[in-house]
Amino acid sequence: MFSFAKTAAISAIIISASMGVAFAGSHGGSSGSGDHNGDHRDGHHDRFMLGDNDITNDDAQNPAFVVPAFTPVQASGPRLQAILSELRADDQRVNADRARGLLTASESRHLKAEDGQIRREAMWTAERNHGVIPTPRYITLQNQAQRLQTEISRMV
Length: 156
Fold this sequence. Notes:
Elements: H1 4-26, E1 29-31, E2 40-41, E3 44-47, H2 78-99, H3 105-128, H4 135-155
Antiparallel strand pairs: 1-3, 2-3
Helix pairs in contact: 2-3, 2-4, 3-4
Region (Disordered): 27-46
Keywords: Signal
Signal peptide: 1-24
């Protein structure tokens, strides 16, 4: 998966290139040479990006095509925040229990791996749904977080 910085950089490049093409296509130089290939405005004829040997008919309106870019979604809905805060609390509890010697290193790694898996799943779901976690998926994630809390309590 791309990091946010890479995704943002690629998006910026695509957007700026698209905007440059659209901007260049919407502005043309004016020539007073008497050619009847462009729009007639105040006695001047505009030629929009046509070369000297271009055989296209510029009387027809050609649409400007803009390449759609992937825009990263700010995943910060209330359901996502609830899941992430529960997972933060679980992570702090695992760290505290490990520091007091109530959990072994192996148990701590196992619990942190489960915590990370739930966190990644929540973020992935929110990103795919425009920052929102749908109700059925939210219930599943809540159940997974609850099982993790139960497992932490059982191991201590």
